[in-house]
User: Fold DNA/pantothenate metabolism flavoprotein C-terminal domain-containing protein from Eeniella nana.
Amino acid sequence: MTETPTSPMLSRVHTSAPDTDSAIDRTIPEFPAATPIDEDNYFRLHKPPPYLSQISRDVAEFINFHHKQNRKVALVTSGGTTVPLENNTVRFIDNFSAGTRGATSAEYFLENSYAVIFLHREFSLLPYSRHYSHTTNCFLDYLAESPDGTKVEVDDKFQKKMLVVLKKYRYAKDQNLLLMVPFTTVHQYLFTLKLIAQEMSVIGYDAVFFLAAAVSDFFLPSSRIPQHKIQSKEVGGKLVVDLEPVPKFLRRLVDSWAPIAMIVSFKLETDDSILIDKARAALKRYNHQLVIGNLLQTRKKQVVFVTPEGERWVKLTPPQIKNRIDIESILVPEIISMHGDWIQSRKEIGL
Ligand SMILES: CC(C)(COP(=O)(O)O)[C@@H](O)C(=O)NCCC(=O)N[C@@H](CSSC[C@H](N)C(=O)O)C(=O)O
Assistant:
């Protein structure tokens, strides 16, 4: 029986404090503004986050533990990436995401016997605790005083549901099925995603990438980011921000970091008239297996699966909406079924 390692469920690293020693480094050449940023250029011209070796050890231990048990592994990314405007970050550009899609989907992968690496925006919603997170319902509202007023208890009306969630949480933790890896900035996200993808290559087609994180499309290169809080008088009272496009990392993920894993990306739009075309364009551009299109306004009720064969809507029915069914309880099993087909197709071509 493989000994369950002691790698922590909650990460030992923290990402929301700025890494201020990558201050204005004038030795870094200006990004070639005119030409498209080369993905390798990005990783070559930027220093990796200082904690990356710690994450590498945790991820390698986690993957080896599950590989020995022939368990499938899902990398679920969740939450929005930030683009700091100062190294001692006071201002930053954020991408919207509460983390619900990722945290909820991670639970359904776990319930379907996958191990999950949860690459998430630090302090965004997490699997299991999302049900009681302070950002939706204050956890104190689930508690009550004991009759003699000396102890805290879970309010009777929440006991049944909370017990179900607690058992699932405890099982995932005790069986080392969930590894939490945080990010805050797009820089941290890209370096960590690349690292995990390369570590996951050992499990090949038994890996699925579920890219629900809301990733910045533009960033401020290290060579141009000021060390301290921008003073309005220094900029004549006006802040003009000159951002560079973020490398199209999805292409690198499909072509080189995880060439035989199944890759699912999300396309987020707010205009329904362009959603399917944009999702199709992403699938054609990156040549991965599935793009799930969703509109910000209706993302909890409907999504559209876009594959090379065509598109298919997944919509909650009114009774399902009324009963607060998670759309992820439908879309994750569908992805798992597609992953089974994917594995079969890889085996048939001798991979
Ligand atoms: C963020 C939401 C909407 C979930 O919301 P919460 O439940 O509140 O967390 C998620 O479903 C989603 O669409 N995530 C993906 C959003 C996103 O940024 N998608 C990118 C594609 S992945 S980023 C890829 C990069 N731009 C590239 O082209 O390489 C896009 O639409 O362009």
